[in-house]
Specification:
homopentamer, 8 helices, rod-shaped, Methane Monooxygenase Hydroxylase, Chain G, domain 1, seven-stranded mixed beta sheet, Beta Polymerase, domain 2, alpha+beta
Chain lengths: ~350, ~350, ~350, ~350, ~350
């Protein structure tokens, strides 16, 4: 998945680059890429599994024999010609093709009667940059075929593929709607991995703030809050997608897949709960940060005040006996000098006792 | 589009200037303008397109032959007589005419059975003033005719006009409801252009704040927040408009235009999500600004405290030996002067070590 | 309309003065008044209009001939005997009479089958006190008669009366439900007048805050926020009133009055939008105010720190050469005095450069 | 009513003391009390009223003749045996008895088909402690009998009792559901008395804050906010109670009592509006308090800075001429001393002008 | 119940440890444990009760005779093999088994037609760590059998077991749905125990803050807020669980258990109310804390300012007469020295009066 670049930390991609185009124009919006757009195909029934890798888009056809399930995973959405061709082969609506190529979609579910179109966000966490990275996944469920589109190589579905390869996995015995569930389940499970990482950083930061807040913690805290804001933008709509997928009298769902989707929905809600808890915590931590700034200022001021309050009066006293008046009787008293010293000592001790009482030390 | 003037940055136009008039009185509310109100007409069917420019309002008639689609775009709403005449020609309700001439409407959708009346806001961003400019667009969908009213020359629809001129565009083969969709789509797509600009400014400001907050950043940040507040006022109601347009069992919508409107609706929701994200970010940035003010104050105070804490005691010491007592034995000691210096040096070094330990340097 | 008095700026009237009375007891709650409660009556049909002024309440009867419309406007609600008599004449429920006399009602709509009872708030803005003033208006729509009750002379309906006097106005040709609409429309239109005034003050205050925040701006800002809080209390329930009036399958509404009420509803929503925008703005302005306090403090501290940091070390140096040690070789060096001056000059220049670099000037 | 004790200002009673008991176990939860639990009974029909005072609970029976209405008011809920006996006499569900004896219930309405069970909070304001006191009132409406349970002597219903004693009051001619309304009406009317008192304190505090905020105002303001939080907890659920009482197709309500309950509902909403307004105001006042702290600090700092900035440079100058260099030509100049004075005078005047310009005086 | 460990105060367990597994894979997620998973069984009808302790999971069968009720309480969920075996014995869905073993579920209710699956959180408060501890409880209601799973020994149900052992308790005479109610009731009752403890700490902290806020109170307050955030996450979803349990046309509920569940629902709402009240209070306390920091700073600054403002001018004066000009007439005046002293005394007194007037003492 792609990180947001450093110089543009809070903007995922150019939002406005589609303005002025006709609706249904398939235009790639996203990072520049040049690799060939290829597909991996898995076709199976109860007894057998056929895998093909790096199939050219031209060779894809909507020719699934009855009783079989097929998963076509297309890697790369930057070749709009390929996507348009695929659209013709699978008879997809122009708006669907437009949305597939537009990598800044909001997660959503569109029901086109013949097929379902689902857009979701895969999320990962870049530990070194401490940044949330997102990648768009478009899924089309059409009869017993799943078409999925990812932006770049590397996805979250290796575990799923392994399960498909095992003959006795439930996914091998189920229809494509169960595969759709498996894809969504993998994505939502991964939300918790990301949330856990962020939770760890929040915790470290919290401990540091409570012990000894540094100026630099401000930007750490701000960055954490920002990542939470962006996560929210991806996870909240996911809940709606899963909810409307499981709730609606959905003709694309067979048998008991709805029960499984209800489970994914529960996980989404759990992820959102956790996210909101983190947001609450980070707000509380900003309060802690501001309070410790005030506390630090208080300590600086106390140091200044203690020193000034002790020495300014003493300096006045020694100034008095530095005056050059002709007639200053004290100057000629024998014990005057030691007396002045002991007077100044008493003042100092009194001051220190006073500050101790006030709890300034 | 018109900017809000500098002296009235947050008030778009005189809100209250209609109070006291009878309902249905067509009164222009908006900036003063004096150009002639004229219309541009595009009429087309599958095979042909006729364009007329700068048609006088008197010459407009509701005489569209069956099988054709017509778009009448009226530029200028300040000539109330012209609007009333148009109202008679197209048999529009008095309240519609009143709303067309009142340029501070809230976006809304009114269904008058014979026709639909839609008010929306076109938004642009004035880069030099860093200000959001809005312009009201009223659209009437009546049978196969679209009547649109803009306040001033210059709109967002040049791309759409080009598409109409091409014979094979979908808009040429569809009814007027699809044209309505195209207008709304252009407007919503342009929201992202504006949001992207604001996002860029937010980002610049954020980077500056985290590095070195300046007093002037306060007004920059406040201005950004204000623009977001105003954008919100235009974009939120847009969602309702598109939603009720696509959801209702709308007799004015044919075939599959509802699918397209659902797409515009998704874009609206995306725009709102982005806007709210920006609002969250700008709130976080205000926290950062306030924290850096505190940090700066802390640094100023530390400087003062370090200097005072070092020199005030030293000044006291030299004051002591400036006293004029007759009997001050130290004064006559040979090594006294260098000893005082080395004593003061030790104090200073001790102080510096103390401050280093406290991390004040 | 009555202002809230100065000593009780945020309490409109005694809220609790009804506790302990039986339900349906007509008790006046409001400012003390002693003028005679009188009514103005306008009766009309298509062809003729009869106006009577200052009619005594005893003379009012529910005797409207068919085909005519009547508006009875009662000025003063402090004479509970008169209101009870009117209640008997028009067969009104005890709770309605109680509510009419109780001038701190929340805006609401009650449907008593035979008649509708509407309570709303007229709002005006007292420019000199910068205070929002409210006055309660009770309206009863019973068949083709409108009974309206205002607290004091002076209302917002002079424009409406003028329209009634013109034979060709729509209100002359419509039933009493249209008159009810006209009353509500006048009130809601006036909200914008008040909002515009408050918007102007917000703007002035904002400009002043961004340029040079004064201590006194705190109370100005607080007062603005308070007025917005009170406005909210009047305008929000108005929306509910108009909404339930236009939405319900209301047997009291004829023909197309619902279309007009939908328009008033849109205006209410617009007013609420504007109000909430103002609230957002005023919150932002409080942030600006607090930031400029911090900025001012920063500047004060910088001044102190610059002066102290420059002069405290210098004072130490001159103190050194004021000491009276017998042996201080520097004192006898020929160029010592000018050298000390130039040394102090160098320190000062170094300090100034240091502060310049830190951007403190 | 009982105040919350001083040492436990924000906890009404022991919340958790029921944990571990079987459901339906009647356990008293509340302040310790030992007086005898007795009942006052009023029985009436159109023509006659019988009052019995201090009836022992053993003597209560469910034996109301047709055509009569009875109000049994039980004072004291700490004698669980008495409550269980009453439960048997009137055939009440175990959960109802449990709830009656548990004085920290949340206001609620339970419909047990045979009877209605309503729990509400009576509220009073203890002027000396500036604290809101609550007392639980349980009401059972069963046929034409009202059973009410209060915790302690002294309630809000003296006015109601007086009305019952008058033969011509509506309550004498109505069924027990109207009496239920009268009880709720008395309670809600009293909310306004309490709100008004709090409003007065808010106002006093606001005026004081805007003139001259004191440290002690912080705890006053905090206490006001806390009382508002507790009021909220009692008043918000009351709205639900009255709403579901009036809305539901309630077989316990006869004739037009629903109209009266709608009126109580409106008052509840009004009370909630007022409460939320007070909360908004008190938040605003906290901002004002914090701002005036900052303003005070600013003034302290200005004083310090003015004095230091004027005198520190002067002290340096006089220090210069206190040095003991052999060769300091100025010392021997005739006009030197007055010149130094006038130089210092000029500096001082320049400083004062500078500070005046900055607006520090 | 397990506390969150000190080093990970705000993360209950590893959230993400399930990512990559197939749906329905029973994987233990929680603290490491190694004791044997055993069950306690209580079987009863009206006349008799049989208790078996520490039954091995292999020996559990779904063989309850008609007319009896059985409660199987399984202690330990870390042995996934045991849980899978139990799943086969009672014919449970794979997702249920997965959820039972996953100890960080969000409270929820799943209806699997044959049985109900409920997940809730038991909460306790660890007084020494001042931390909320949670433990997951899974309950399966299948016909007349309750299967409950707790993570560790030690639960909240000892009181309930005692009641079952008494022959005449309602739970002995009711079906398993009433036992389900009893379990939920015990858990919700215990919420109040925890809330009360937190309320006590809030109160102590509040009193301390208002008297004399210490730096350490910040972390106390922050910890309280954090515990409230975590409590919220457990209690809010509980309301939904109980609500959907009591509301739905639930075929698993017999007779009048719904009435009892309504009571639990009321308690949930009460607990949530209390929790939100505590959150409001703790927010208010953060304001108090920040204000007292400012107040303290103000006092420190006042001390510094008073001392500096009095002594800096005096030090200047004595500096003046320490100058060594040849001609300084005052030096030779006889009363000069006492006059200077009295002049300085007057200045000091004037200053003190000035500060008194300003209320700085």
């Amino acid at each position: 998945m792609k990180k947001r670049t450093n110089t543009h930390p809070h903007k995922q991609r150019r939002l406005g680059s589609k303005a002025g185009f006709a609706p249904g124009t398939v235009t790639y919006v996203g990072e520049e890429r040049s690799f060939d757009v290829l597909a991996d195909i898995m076709t199976w029934d109860d007894s057998a599994l056929i895998e093909k890798h790096n199939v050219r888009i031209d060779d894809l056809k909507d020719d699934l024999p009855a009783g079989q399930t097929r998963w076509i995973n297309v890697t790369g959405i930057h070749d709009t010609a390929a996507i348009e061709q695929l659209g013709r082969a699978f008879n997809l609506h122009g708006l669907v093709l437009e949305d597939i190529a537009h990598s800044t979609q909001r997660p959503k579910l569109d029901d086109y009667e013949d097929y379902l179109y689902v857009v979701v966000k895969m999320i990962s966490y870049d530990e070194s940059e401490r940044q949330v990275c997102t990648e768009q996944l478009s899924i089309i469920l059409r009869g017993n075929t799943i078409l999925s589109f990812i932006e770049d190589t590397g996805d979250l579905f290796d575990g799923l593929r392994e399960r498909i390869r095992k003959g006795n996995a439930k996914v091998r015995k189920s229809d494509a709607d169960y595969l759709l569930y498996c894809l969504l389940d993998s994505i939502v499970d991964n939300y918790f991995v990301v949330l856990e990482r962020i939770g760890d950083h929040l915790e470290e930061t919290e401990i540091r703030l409570l012990n000894d807040a540094q100026t630099s913690d401000l930007s750490v805290l701000h960055a954490l809050k920002r990542e939470l804001i962006f996560l929210r933008k991806s996870i909240w709509p996911m809940r709606e997608v899963v909810s409307s997928l499981s709730k609606s009298e959905n003709l694309h769902l067979k048998g008991n897949t709805a029960i499984y989707l209800r489970d994914v929905y529960d996980h989404c809600v759990h992820a959102i709960d956790t996210l909101e808890t983190f947001r609450d915590l980070s707000s509380g931590m900003m309060d802690v940060y501001l309070s410790s700034l005030s506390n630090k200022m208080n300590n600086v001021m106390k140091t200044l005040t203690i020193i000034s309050t002790i020495f300014i009066p003493l300096t006045f006293i020694v100034g008095v006996y530095g005056m050059n008046f002709d007639i200053m009787p004290e100057l000629h008293v024998y014990w005057a000098y030691p007396l002045v010293w002991s007077f100044m000592g008493s003042i100092t001790i009194a001051m220190i006792i006073y500050f101790k009482r006030k709890g300034w030390f």
